């Protein structure tokens, strides 16, 4: 019997200003049971760093050996992870942007170590998708918390 797919929505946020406060968030729809949510914050960061961090944190929440579709409204992230992750692994992450290399390694390790079957899917932001809107709200919450630090 095929296993049911998990749906994972991720987002990152970074506010302009002193200390560049940022946040990441994820919303995971499980096949059975309540959703899983998470968020966090950082200072002196970039939006792309928070976007990749959201994916790494979300994949860390998944059980082993599941199929998951990861949705992101960051088109370059989706393209990079879909088309470049294998190349990054082969080169030991030598050519990866240094600002995202830690998250890229964590993403790769989660997929490999936990035998995840991942599909990457771009989704238009602020287009009424409940999962994407929730991930966005969680990332914004993280950025607000970072700003208060």
* Percent in strands: 15-25%
Binned, the helix content reads 40-55%
Radius of gyration, Cα only, in angstroms?
A: 15 Å
In total, the number of strands is: 5
Number of structural domains: 1
User: Major sheet: order of its strands?
Assistant: 3-2-1-4-5
CATH architecture heading? 2-Layer Sandwich
Look at the structure and name the CATH superfamily: Ribonuclease H-like superfamily/Ribonuclease H
* Low-pLDDT sequence parts: none
Mean pLDDT across all residues, rounded? 94
* Gross morphology: globular
End-to-end Cα distance, whole Å, is: 49 Å
Offer a concise description of the structure.
By secondary structure, the chain is an alpha/beta fold. It has helices at 47-59, 75-83, 85-90, 101-113, 130-148, and strands at residues 6-14, 22-29, 36-42, 67-72, 117-122. It has one domain (6-148): Ribonuclease H-like superfamily/Ribonuclease H (Nucleotidyltransferase, domain 5, 2-Layer Sandwich), CATH 3.30.420.10.
Structural account:
It is built from five helices and five strands; from the N terminus they run βββαβαααβα. The protein is α/β, with parallel strands linked by helices and 149 residues long. It has a single domain, classed as Ribonuclease H-like superfamily/Ribonuclease H (Nucleotidyltransferase, domain 5, 2-Layer Sandwich), CATH 3.30.420.10. Strands 3-2-1-4-5 form a five-stranded mixed beta sheet. The radius of gyration is 15 Å and the shape is globular.
């Amino acid at each position: 019997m095929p296993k049911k797919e998990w749906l994972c929505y991720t987002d990152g946020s970074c506010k302009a200003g002193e200390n560049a406060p940022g946040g990441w968030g994820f919303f995971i729809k499980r096949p059975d049971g309540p959703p899983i949510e998470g968020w966090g914050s950082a200072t002196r960061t970039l939006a792309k760093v928070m976007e990749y961090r959201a994916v790494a944190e979300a994949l860390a929440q998944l059980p082993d050996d599941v199929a998951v579709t990861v949705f992101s409204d960051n088109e370059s992230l989706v393209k990079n992870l879909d088309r470049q992750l294998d190349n990054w692994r082969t080169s030991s992450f030598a050519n990866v942007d240094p600002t995202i290399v830690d998250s890229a390694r964590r993403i790769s390790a989660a997929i490999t170590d936990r035998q995840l079957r991942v599909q990457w899917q771009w989704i238009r932001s602020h287009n009424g998708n409940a999962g994407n809107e929730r991930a966005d709200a969680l990332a914004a919450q993280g950025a607000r918390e970072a700003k208060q630090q």
